From TrEMBL:
Family recorded in the similarity comment: Belongs to the methyltransferase superfamily. RsmD family.
Gene this chain is encoded by: rsmD
Record keywords: Methyltransferase, rRNA processing, S-adenosyl-L-methionine, Transferase
Descriptive protein name: Ribosomal RNA small subunit methyltransferase D
Protein species of origin: Parahaliea aestuarii
CDD domains per the UniProt record, alphabetical: AdoMet_MTases (cd02440)
Reactions catalysed according to its record: guanosine(966) in 16S rRNA + S-adenosyl-L-methionine = N(2)-methylguanosine(966) in 16S rRNA + S-adenosyl-L-homocysteine + H(+)
């Protein structure tokens, strides 16, 4: 099986593009700046993920940790999520996401936070319905974020999405979380957990 397609880079501008694949903004193309470790979730993976989330996405409060290009959070908003918080350490990425929210007339439905996942979770106690966890691979960033999420950051019956390298060791999750879906595409493994 071939690896997921890489984002298309525009030679003249040094930017790459992602496409919203479903919902209100379906087909909209948004630009972002390539950066080390930045790897927007491939279209086919997003399509599968949001098919899984279709019963619960409407009016959900979402958290996009390690948001990068914002592909997951923006897709969630397009499909009817009420709000999404975008968290990343790259200020340029967040400024671009903020511009996208303005362009899409959705500035009131998203908020950008220039912090590490741990800093954000330690300073924020809101309960989230859906959390997207897609950190740079092979850096051990998912495990501490998952530990913090389990400590009072999730609404009842929340969903937590985890994306990692196919050969990467999975981080531990609480025993009370049920593995709802587990799939691979190329070099990517993606999982969806249902929490109590």
């Amino acid at each position: 099986m071939s690896p997921p397609p890489k984002p298309r880079h525009t030679a003249t501008s040094g930017t790459a593009q992602l496409r919203i694949i479903g919902g209100h903004w379906r087909g909209r193309k948004l630009s972002f700046l390539p950066a080390d470790g930045l790897r927007p979730t491939a279209d086919r993976v997003r399509e599968t993920l949001f098919n899984w989330l279709a019963p619960v996405i409407r009016d959900a409060r979402c958290l996009d940790l390690f948001s990068g290009s914002g592909a997951l959070g923006l897709e969630a908003l397009s499909r009817g999520a009420a709000h999404c918080a975008f968290v990343d350490t790259n200020g340029a990425n967040l400024r671009q996401i903020s511009k996208h929210l303005d362009t899409l007339d959705a500035a009131d439905r998203g908020a950008c936070h220039n912090r590490t996942a741990e800093e954000f979770l330690n300073g924020n106690r809101e309960p989230w319905d859906i959390v997207f966890l897609d950190p740079p691979f092979e850096r051990g960033l998912a495990a501490p974020a998952l530990t913090l999420l389990a400590d009072g950051h999730l609404a009842p019956e929340a969903m937590v999405y985890l994306e990692c390298g196919r050969q990467e060791m999975l981080p531990a999750v609480p025993d009370s979380w049920d593995l709802h879906r587990d799939k691979t595409a190329g070099n990517v493994r993606y999982l969806l957990y249902h929490t109590p």
